[in-house]
Amino acid sequence: MNKILVVDDERQVIQHIGSLLQGYGYEFGFIARPELLFKRLEDEPFDLILLDINMPQVDGISLLRQLKQHPHFQTIAVIMMTGETDEKTLAQCFQYGARDFITKPIKELVFHARIKSALDNQVYIKKIEQQQELLNEQLAKIVSQQKEVEDALEIIRKKNIQITSSINYAKRIQQTMLPERELFDQLLPNYFILYRPRDIVSGDIYWIYEQNGLVFLAVVDCTGHGVPGAIMSMIAFEQLLEIVSVNEISEPAQILDRLHANIRAILKQDQTDNRDGMDVALCVIDREHKKMAYSGAHNPLLYVQNGAMQICKADRMAVGGEAHAKHFFSQYQIDLTMPTAFYLFSDGYQDQFGGEKGAKFMFRSFRELLFQIYDFPLAEQARILEQTIEQWMLAGNQKQLDDILILGVKINF
Length: 413
Fold this sequence. Notes:
Elements: E1 3-7, H1 11-24, E2 27-31, H2 37-43, E3 48-52, H3 60-69, E4 77-82, H4 87-95, E5 100-103, H5 108-144, H6 146-177, H7 181-187, E6 191-196, E7 204-211, E8 214-222, H8 226-246, H9 252-266, E9 277-286, E10 291-297, E11 301-305, E12 308-312, E13 319-320, E14 332-335, E15 340-345, E16 353-354, E17 359-360, H10 363-373, H11 378-395, E18 404-411
Parallel strand pairs: 1-2, 1-3, 3-4, 4-5
Antiparallel strand pairs: 6-18, 7-8, 8-9, 9-10, 9-13, 10-14, 11-12, 11-15, 15-18, 16-17
Helix pairs in contact: 6-8, 8-9
């Protein structure tokens, strides 16, 4: 049963409150001399104190303040009683920790409701304290195991450093295989490259090569990202160079056909379940005859001439992986006798989730953005593309999901 202590110097008030509390079934006690409060609390526990604000001997607010500062009694709920409703006084009561207040003359229904509310709140607080004790016990168990956990974390930390160091070294190897920007400056001086690996190393690569007056340009999106994608990218670099420089194949469709066959052979995909491969956009630029040939595996080509954007659709089949029902890749021819801006890219940009609805950026939006900016300086185009995708991810609270690679070129022979 809850116990309530009434502190008031008026006997009539004490008698009235006593009859009410008795009627409610509460156990209670009284103090007419407030200076005896702490002695009474030391002798007998109480769940709630009804404390008069205005008493001749002691200021009730001062007594409340002392009570809430006492280490043993500060958790006891206190309801202040007053014949006045001065807002400043009541504000002080709540500031020092009063649970509620009751005005005199006491109204029975309000009195009962506020008493019950305060006691129910104390029950809730005790439950929280019990839960806190349980949590403290659990915390003690966790702390007792802390050394073992810290040792395990240290092992993980060291292994993480070793793994990260190895991947960073792989990044340096991959970067040495990517074409130098000086080669782009020499062969296609008006260009930009937006290159954002999702992880330290990338499954997206770009490649440029010159042979017999032809410029070979490719964007390759290998299966996966990170380390698996980077391993595939090494194969792509090696095979493209061999097919073009050693086998002297110069038609992009034939290059992709040969690359497909070589990847399947290298990964023994006829004998295993391995289906890794790559999507490729490949161009061969003939500067002498002012024309360009393109072939694509999943990755299309966008180009702009005379203020109109055109699309060369890629074949819906990858390089490597499944055997092709169609034996040859398609090939497009583009006339470069007029100023031309064209773009090769992987699917990381348009497939990135973001925006207020958390949706994909989508190819249509990507194409429209390129058309809006194609006439801008190349460096400005790259800046806008990067800023746009950053804002897209930020708006949707999304992280980068895949490698992103966009290669833009302007040609005006």
